[in-house]
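User: I'm preparing a small set of examples for a lab meeting where we compare how different chains pack in three dimensions. I only have the primary sequence for this one, and I'd like the structure in token form so I can line it up with the others. Please keep the answer compact; I'll paste it straight into my notes.
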Amino acid sequence: MRKCLVVAYYFPPMGLSGVQRILKFVKYLREYNWEPIVLTTSSKDYYAYDESLSNELESLGIEVYRTNDGKEVSKKNNFLPNYSKQKFGRFFLNFFNIPDSKIKWKKFALSKAERIFKEHKIEVILATAPPFTDFLIAKELSEKYNLPYLLDYRDSWIDNKFHYFPTPYHKSKAIALETEFMRTSSRVIVISRQAKENLIKRYKFLSYDDIVIIPHGYDQDDLDAVAHIKPDNSYFTVTHSGVFQDDRTPKYFFKAIRNIIKSNPEIKKHLRVRLVGLMRKNHIKLITKYKLDEIITSVGFVNHKESVNYLMNSDVLWLMLNDDIRTPGKLWEYFGVKKPILATIPDGPMKKLCLEYKASIVTKPKDIAEIEKAILEYYNLWKSNTLPKADENFVEQFDRKALTEILAKQLSLAISIN
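Assistant: Understood. Below is the structure token output for the 418-residue chain.
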């Protein structure tokens, strides 16, 4: 097999959805004659740990090289920090670190890479970001060893309002770095057409073929393992999986539930809402504030297998977004389990995808009346056993194995044109 060096700061045993994309690429690359060699960090003080993901890698015998850039810490799952504190922290860290707060990892990664190149015949480099320090590492290794490198954007950089640029200088520096990445990389991979168009618009020297769209997806192996799980017919169960990142809030959904219970007290016996994943403390307090403790349960962080169990054991899945800038990977896993979706999201690419799925009701994220109406509509469909069905053909295009085949072809193309 040909060997590909994968540069990924975020990687198991870190939990959360940010590691799923690169983890599944690594899992399936061997099926397309590529052996992934992973360069990542030592165990850090992550918000969440998921040892089941590491066990999955170990069972496959994937080689993972970890840098010695910090002492091991106790592995615990935490609450997400307050958004204001998180925002200030990013601003402060980004003021002193370019391209981002992980820049100090670069020297450890480059040092560990020397050992990797001595032990393996690497033919191409793949870096995934954020953090965008990963791209810088890939570029320097590319220059040192005269190898092609590919960039995988899980989120946009310059166009991302959640990546804070403290001053105009910081933003201009980021654009200069991204320009270099665009000029010197063999391929750029993005997850959406919008992200592709934004890059082509900014960097006029890029051609249409320089950027490849490989969306997020779902792993059929994960779903097959829990295919036997069915919802409890006694309850109408709505589940949200993942974190309410940045300025996202469950407040408007909670208010809609409160209003429904006031107007239709009998629904209280059947309606159940589950929040699966890390929560902010102020969001947890809203449950009690709106007197919904009997209806809404915060499960907390669970490993990936358990999170899929919760999805399968649900009647409707809830997605919440405030913007169309970032693309939550959990949506594609929602597609994979083929459950009806209640999407409280703005106009944009995510709304378009949900409508193409055919089993979605979409409302504005802060329109409480619309959200109430959508919940009641799904509740009545549940009572009559007529909940909508997903479009099978639409769903199948997001299978992780098929998406990895696209990546494997791009790796091969990068070698052939280098």
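A couple of notes for your slides: Residues 221-396 form a domain with the Rossmann fold fold (CATH 3.40.50.2000). The chain has a mean pLDDT of 90.

User: Perfect, thanks.
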